[in-house]
Specification:
alpha+beta, 2 domains, rod-shaped
């Protein structure tokens, strides 16, 4: 017989509520952050150098001598080192510099060094030159870095090149004005680089300039010191700066004659007849070596002189000379539009050869009474300003005559010249 099943009701499980929030484990409590260390101050090294430079007017001020500033930018040992050229370079820069200054742009080189730009304005219009130098902060003091020695050399080289360029430009200007006969312009161009010429005297460009300058007449201011007894009696000539007229102690007036090396009148002389060419010498045939003729000629003839020696003595008494044939010819051609009295008439005038000063010549026409009327023989052109006509007259065999030194036949006088060059 089977046993009856257990019909007892199942045992009830206890009602367990889910854990509440309060019952959950809490995370570990966060620790308060430790206070951060203050960041180190940002040091603007370039600004520190700017402030330093601004505070040292004794070294970097506007009126600081060039060498003083350069010595502050190149290590001290370099100035004492055997074989160093720093001192010579600084002296050179001081001689060519008109002013020296510091640019506004200061730049950091690294954590303790910064650079500044040196500005050098050169004398007499030469181009400004610049160079960057660096200083390093050491133990709270600013010291130049060794590389500045090379910067000094490069600055001196740049300054020399800029100064030479100014001299070269002046020489080119002088040469151009020489070709046009502008004597005043030549001296002005040379004067514009006077100090640079002294500093760079050993340079070939300067030597070429000085050679060109020596080949032209001096300025009027230079010449007048040797012309005692003469006073300006006319306005200044625009191209030479010389008075167009001078008056001597006796009241005689002299006229300026200027014939530069490339003047068209020289070409006229090259076309002269062979007989005239022989007495004119080789000046007309020259080119680069042709002289600049500048002199004064008397406006009036002096008394007749039948002997060349008498004419020379008369000229010597007043501190002047008997003209050469070429001086007489050039004066006549240059002054053709307003010839001095009797230059183409009156009496013939004693002249000498360019090389042989004892060779006597009689130049010009002579006024004679023909058929009861005074006429010049040979007759000059009606318009003396006509260069072609005047030149044809001058090439007439009677206008330039070879004469015995004792044969003036009462028809020959002296017209003196005062030579400047």
């Amino acid at each position: 017989m089977t046993e009856p099943r257990d019909t007892a009701p199942p045992t009830e499980q206890p009602d367990i509520a889910p854990p509440t929030a309060e019952a959950q484990p809490s995370p570990p409590t966060a620790q308060p952050p430790e206070p951060a260390e203050p960041a180190p101050p940002v040091v603007n090294i370039a600004e520190r150098l700017r402030d330093y430079v601004g505070s040292r007017a004794d070294v970097f001020g506007a009126d600081t001598p060039v060498e003083t500033m350069l010595r502050a930018l190149v290590p001290p040992d370099e100035w004492q080192r055997t074989g160093s050229s720093a001192a010579q370079q600084a002296t050179f820069l001081a001689r060519v510099a008109a002013s020296i200054g510091i640019g506004e742009d200061f730049r950091a080189v690294d954590a303790d060094a910064a650079s500044l730009e040196l500005l050098l304005d050169l004398k007499e219009g030469a181009k400004q030159v610049t160079k960057v130098f660096a200083l390093r902060l050491q133990d709270g003091a600013w010291e130049p870095i060794p590389e500045n020695t090379r910067a000094l050399t490069e600055l001196a080289t740049a300054a020399r090149q800029a100064a030479l360029a100014a001299v070269q430009n002046a020489r080119k200007e002088m040469d151009a004005k020489r070709r046009t006969g502008d004597l005043a312009g030549i001296h002005a161009a040379a004067s514009a680089v006077r100090e640079l010429r002294v500093v760079l005297a050993d340079e070939s460009d300067v030597k070429q300039l000085e050679t060109l300058l020596a080949a032209v007449p001096p300025t009027w201011e230079q010449a007048r010191g040797e012309l005692r007894g003469y006073a300006a009696a006319g306005e200044a000539d625009a191209r030479t700066g010389y008075p167009t007229r001078l008056k001597d102690a006796e009241g005689r007036v002299l006229r300026l004659v200027s014939v530069p090396p490339e003047d068209e009148l020289w070409e006229r002389l090259r076309t002269a007849p062979a007989s005239v060419q022989a007495v004119l010498g080789n000046e007309a045939a020259m080119t680069n070596q042709r002289p600049w003729r500048l002199y004064y000629v008397d406006e009036q003839e002096q008394s007749a002189a039948n002997v060349l020696a008498q004419a020379q003595e008369a000229a010597n008494r007043v501190g002047r000379a008997v003209p050469t044939v070429s001086e007489w010819v050039l004066a006549t051609l240059r002054l053709r539009s307003e010839l001095p009295a009797d230059l183409t008439g009156g009496r013939r005038e004693w002249c000498i050869g360019p090389a042989d000063t004892s060779a006597a010549w009689a130049c010009g026409g002579v006024t004679q009474t023909l058929r009861g009327q005074e006429r010049v023989v040979p007759p000059p052109p009606a318009d003396a300003a006509d260069l072609d006509a005047l030149w044809r007259w001058m090439c007439h065999p009677l206008v330039i005559q070879r004469r015995a030194a004792t044969f003036g036949d009462e028809l020959t006088a002296v017209r003196t010249v005062l030579r400047i060059r």
